[in-house]
From TrEMBL:
Any one annotated GO CC term: cell division site
Regions crossing the membrane: 7-27, 100-119, 131-153, 173-192
Species for this entry: Suillus placidus
Pfam families from the UniProt entry: SUR7
The protein's name in its UniProt record: Pali-domain-containing protein
KW Transmembrane (keyword) present: yes
Superkingdom in the source lineage: Eukaryota
Gene3D superfamilies per record: 1.20.140.150
Alphabetically ordered keywords of this record: Membrane, Transmembrane, Transmembrane helix
Amino acid sequence: MSRTYCIPGVFFLFSAFFLLFIVSISLPRFQAMDITRVHSSGQIASNGNQAFTQLRFGIWGYCVDLSSGRTCFNTGHGYSVTVINSQNAEITIGPSWTRGLAVLPVAACVAFIALLLSVSQHITVTLVASLVSFLAALLTLIAFAINIALYAYVKQELGTLNINETTITGPGFWLTFVSLLLLILAGCTVCFGRRRDRMAGATNNSYQLNGVKGGGFLSRFRRN
């Protein structure tokens, strides 16, 4: 593939993979990379029944900021969180809303495969790299839709408790969106680079064929 398209394509894929990788680490190991974040005061979570000021949702668990400090729970994907207000009304964010977050690591793996394929100069391999890039983009789109669903559901459910809270999107939410854009750009760049190589190859073959025909005509003209 032409270096004009190869270098940007590899850069886009590497950037997308790197972002998806750090998002996939997520909570509780990478506490800053949450998907949805809740700021509150005076509410209590089911674990320990202690008042928290912040609740963070990640892929592999969640974290709560208590008066004694931050506590993280390594529950694995598909966890549930219960929040109770001062009137003992409670809501539960069930595993059906957090289990789908595991699509993000799968998208990161597919993006890595596309990155490895994109460094090849073989036309067929670059075509496969383009297709794999679009597959990674599709998985990332699904993951981003799940992120939106989790954020919307948490915001809606906490709103029913009539408490003073603010639900916002976390860094992992927006890095997933950026990764989606990068993967789309990468797939298009690799695809256009392959198309340009095919057109360049067809042009060169045409020039060579015309040269052979012209040479044969000139030889015949000299013999005559």
